[in-house]
Amino acid sequence: DIQMTQSPSSLSASVGDRVTITCRATQDIRNSLAWYQQKPGTAPKLLLFAASRLESGVPSRFSGSGSGTDYTLTISDLQPEDFATYYCQHYNPTLPCTFGQGTKVEIK
Amino acid sequence: QVQLVQSGAEVKKPGASVKVSCKASGYMFTSYGLNWVRQAPGQGLEWMGRISGYNGNTKYAQMFQDRVTMTIDTSTNTAYMDLRSLRSDDTAVYFCARNGLSAFDVWGPGTTVIVSS
Q1: Rounded to an integer, what distance in angstroms lies between the CA atom of residue B69 and that of residue A66?
Q2: B18 close to B7: Cβ distance less than 8 angstroms
Q3: How does the average pLDDT of chain B come out, rounded?
Q4: Contact A49/B110, CB-based, under 8 Å?
Q5: DSSP letter assigned to residue B42
Q6: Percentage of residues of chain A with pLDDT beyond 90
Q7: Are residues A96 and B47, on separate chains, in Cβ contact within 8 Å?
Q8: Do B104 and A43 touch (CB under 8 A)?
Q9: In this predicted model, what pLDDT tens digit does every residue of B58-99 receive, in sequence order?
Q10: How many CB pairs under 8 A join A and B?
Q11: Which residues of B touch A101 (CB under 8 A)?
């Protein structure tokens, strides 16, 4: 199975900062990459799919990029409601899917 | 609106089984698959498997292959996840999530399963 390595595992940032989270796959996943946000006690929420496509209703300060094995989630102008844990996911409708280990974004 | 409603919390003894339900509404159940994802306390997300809403075909994660059964009831638009031979490390929140075109686009609220003697 394809494994996903996410980094960093945590980071501290201030409101207004630009934050970058990376995700690396063990093989080329051809942009089959999604990003989720999870707040304590709630289900994950889809932010982006196909590496860079924003899910409906998600603010444009969230963006995704990458190709091959390496992908990035960027949050520009970090807002108070963005403090949460973020997960990348290799998504394939017919194969096993895997999540990264998560990145906790905390207030500095 | 599109919604997944899960069954309530469960407390089970080691060795027992648990069956969690996920009732879908607001979309055509047979057009989408459903996934099961679990999250142990303080840990990350772990994919358990998926089931087709069309024909009930399943794909399980290797680590659950021997202990999990996923089923659907198209008459009630409900998916079920049955986990057997429970251990303490199965204590987790279990989520169902719709298999969208490119990601898991709708999630249930989660069902807490506690395994304790």
Answers
A1: 36
A2: no
A3: 96
A4: no
A5: T
A6: 93
A7: yes
A8: no
A9: 999 999 999 999 999 999 999 999 999 999 999 999 999 999
A10: 64
A11: 44
